[in-house]
Amino acid sequence: MTVLDRLPGPSPYPKANGVVGQAARLLRHRGLPERLGHTDASPPASVFQFGGLGLDLTAAPQAPLHGVAASQQELERALGERAAELGVRVRRSCEVVGPNVR
User: Fold this and answer.
1) How would DSSP label each residue in the chain?
2) Does residue 55 contact residue 47 with C-beta atoms inside 8 Å?
3) What is the model's pTM?
4) pLDDT tens digit string along 87-101?
5) Which residues pair with 4 in a beta bridge?
6) CB neighbours (10 Å) of residue 24?
7) What is the C-alpha to C-alpha distance for residues 53 and 62, in angstroms, rounded to an integer?
8) Cα–Cα distance for residue pair 90/85, rounded to 1 Å
9) pLDDT at 40 over 70
10) What does the alpha-carbon distance between residue 18 and residue 69 come to, in Å, rounded to a whole number?
């Protein structure tokens, strides 16, 4: 498998400080939080920022939101390492512009 990325390398600029919801569950399923230094599952969030507003989740009957705290750079590194272990090639400076990729 090959992954194409139009950027020449990982971004040096922070864009995120973690993932939440289904993305966090998928990272856990693949063992990525341990690569990021998380030794146990993070507790569910009691407050979530959405549109600049703090949403109080403490009244929800079940913990609705779990997350994995990590910088964009840490996430990219961990995902890249795991992809390499699985034999995935990452080709940088390659952009998909239509259905006929060369």
Assistant:
1) -EEEESSSS--SS---SEEETHHHHHHHHTTHHHHTT--SPPPPPSEEEETTEEEE-TTSSS----EEE--HHHHHHHHHHHHHHTT-EEEES----SS---
2) yes
3) 0.69
4) 999 999 998 888 775
5) 91
6) 20
7) 21
8) 12
9) no
10) 4
**Residue pointed to by tokens 């998380």:** 38
Distances (CA, A) of 75 to 8, 13, 56, 62: 17, 13, 27, 27
Rounded CA-CA distance 99/73 in Å is 30
CB within 8 Å of 102: residues ≥ 6 apart: none
Give the burial class of 89: count Cβ atoms within 10 A of its Cβ; 0-12 exposed, 13-18 middle, 19 or more buried: exposed
Determine the Cα–Cα distance for residues 82 and 76; give it in Å rounded to an integer: 10
Structure tokens at 19: 């993932």
Residue found under tokens 């040096």: 12
User: Which has the higher per-residue pLDDT, 7 or 15?
Assistant: 7
